[in-house]
Amino acid sequence: MPASAKPHPTPLTAQLVWAEAGQPSPAEAYLNTLSPSGRRTQATALANLAGIFSEGKLDDPLQFAWQNLRYEQTSSLAAYMVDIGYAKSSVNKHLVALRRVLEEAYRLGLYSDHNSYYQAAAVRSLRNEALPRGRALKEDELQALVAACLADEGNPNLGVRDAALISTLYVGALRRQEVVDLNLADLSVEEARLRVQGKGSKRRYVYLSPSALLSLQSWLDLRGRRLGPLFCRVSKGGKIVLRRLSPQAIYYLLGRRALQAGLEAFSPHDLRRTAITHLLDAEVDVLTVSAIAGHASTDTTRRYDRRSEESKRAAAQKLRAPLPPGSPDDGPGRESGDLNDQASSSR
Fold first, then answer.
1. CA distance linking residue 103 with residue 121, whole number of Å
2. The domain that contains 55 carries what CATH number?
3. What is the reported pTM?
4. Do 136 and 270 form a contact (C-beta atoms < 8 A)?
């Protein structure tokens, strides 16, 4: 092993890897507390952890004996995962899954010694100060996106659905899983309100602007008022099929509409970033924006704010490179209010 490589966490012996028959499953207890999207993500994380702690002998988290983990196994996990190429944010998701599954094992009475649980679960998340991801769309980009939907002559029903879905994603600052989980029963037209199920099965209300509600009503005129998913499938021939969309379908439809509108690529989450940035730019207080977005902490909301990046970009235009006289940047057209000029005039 190279000197810089981190050692593999001490694996459990083969006898300690497998849960005893008939024992309650801490992994199942933990996963049952999560939303469908969270369950999929953390089930994968638990499977990865089971594989690491068993040294590849078992990757089924429901069969893994989590109560047999001790500090000697868990303490070196984070360093090992970073060393084999996991991003710190991904490592932290795995550490959350580990702490929670050990907590469920403790609650189920599977730890015979309290100290063994507390020591094994005492793994701290890594500090992760990553550069901001994604981008905020401009107002004209949002308008072009919806216009591309409504100009769909080949399948106008699909265009109306997509326009309403994009408007709802943006105005509600919704996650893609949240928008596909919406049911007709979650909409109150009279109050212009949606009931949203967020992460961790937490519910919140979001309110729609008159224009967003109008777009949604145009879709409902086509969809009808039958109970079921609010946004459902539309066939190539324009037939409304009352079956729920998948989160991946949101990626596809946004990618297709962005291409039609001639826009730079963006993700569904960028619509959420855009909404949060626009709300903060409109001087809506951060606590209200955090409640709209379903964030547990205002610190999370602030990380979505892209105004600081625009401010830095604008500030950069104020500084001119120290090029010799006669260089291209030294002639007419240079911004007259840059800091170099101000500094020269103050001497």
1. 8
2. 1.10.150
3. 0.59
4. yes
Catalytic residues: 175, 199, 269, 272, 295, 304
Pair of tokens at residue 144: 């072009």
Same domain, 169 and 285: yes
Structural domain containing residue 53: 14-120
Q: Are residues 163 and 195 in the same domain?
A: yes
| DSSP state string for 151-216 | T-SS-HHHHHHHHHHHHHHHHHT--HHHHHH-BGGGEETTTTEEEEE-GGG-EEEEE--HHHHHHH
Q: Based on DSSP, count helices (H) and strands (E) in the chain, helices before strands.
A: 17, 5
- For 337-347, the pLDDT digits (tens) are 554 454 444 44
Question: Using CA atoms, how far apart are residues 31 and 53, in angstroms rounded to an integer?
Answer: 19
- Are residue 152 and residue 95 in the same domain, yes or no? no
Whether 70 contacts 119, CB under 8 Å: yes
pLDDT digits (tens, 9 = 90+) for 282-313: 888 888 888 888 887 777 777 766 665 566 56
